[in-house]
Give the backbone structure.
Amino acid sequence: MTRTLLASLARIADFDRNPYDVRPLDKAGWASGDYVLGEVFGARSELYTIESCSGEMLPVQAGDQVIGALGVRAGTLEGAGDYASVENGNMQALTNAGLFGAFTSFSTLLSKPISLRYRGHILRNDRKVQMRDFAITGEAASFAVPTILLVGTSMSAGKTLAGRLACKLLSSAGYKVIGAKLTGAGRYKDIASFKRHGAFEIYDFVDAGLPSTIAPEEEYRAAIRPLLQLIAGREPDYLVAEAGASPLEPYNGAAAIDELGDKVCCTILCASDPYAVVGVQQAFGLTPDLVSGPAASTTAAVDLVRKLTGLSAINVLDADAERKFRKFLEATLKICLSERRSA
C-alpha cells in the first residue's frame, strides 16, 4: 500500500487538512520553496528516513511518496546539491526534512541518500503551492530582544548543544526564552530540542517560508524580518538564536547577524578545532565571548584556544559544564541564575 508522508518542511502547510492536486511541471517553472511530491526508489540505506512534521524520524522504502520542497544545500561535511541539478526527474533528499534536489557532491563516509522520482508539483487552482504561501508575514521594524547568538565554523560544530544549555539555565531561573534557528538547511530536530530544554516557543526560517537560507540576500532579509518581529512581539526576556553553519558559508549568516544588530548581548562560537577559531576571527572579524564545540573537547584544546586567541572555552559535555556555563552567562549577561527570578 502506497504511503504519502509529509516531511518536516511541510509542517507550516495544510496538506493534512485540505485537498491538493499533483501534476508535473516543466523544469523551467521550478523554484526554491516549491512543494513537490517525490516517490522513493532504490535499495534502502541508513539514510532512508524522513523527518516528519513532529520531528519523528520515519523509515521509508521504495514506493513511499513524500511531500517536500525544492531547495539548495551546501553542507561542508555531508553534501552539496540543488534542485537545478535534477535530471530526468531523478531527485534525492538533500536533508531528511524533505529538502529535495540532486547532490552534486556527497561525502563518501555516508550511506546512500534517499533516491526519489519527481511525480509532480503540489497544485491548487492550477497554481503551484509554495512554502512562502504559509510564511509568517508582517511589517518589519527594529528588533529589540536581548539575544544570545550561536555561530559555528561549520555544521555539526556543537551550536545546538550550547543552545540547549542556555535555554535550560535561563528558563530554570525564570526567564522567558524563545529559541530560533535563523540560517541553515531545513531540519526540525535541532530547534525542537530547544523547546524540550526550556524555551517556551521555537521558530526557524521554515516559518519564514524558506527551505534553506541559501537565497539572494535581499530575499532572505525580507523573509526573516517578519519572523524577528513576531519573536519580539512575544516579549521574551532572551532570544537564543542559532545561525546554522558558519557566517562564511552561503547561508546568509552575516545578514542574520546584521539583522539582530546591537541586540546581540552574548556570542558563542562553536568551532571544529582551535585553529578554526582563528580562521573565523581573521576572516569574519568576529570576537566571541566564549568558544565551545569540538574546539573545547579536552583541556589541551581549551589551552590551545586560549594560547591562539586569548578566549575562554567550555566543553558543554563535561560533567562540570553546567556550573561553568552558568558562571559565564551570569558574568556576560550581568544576571543571577542561581535563584529563580520572580515573574
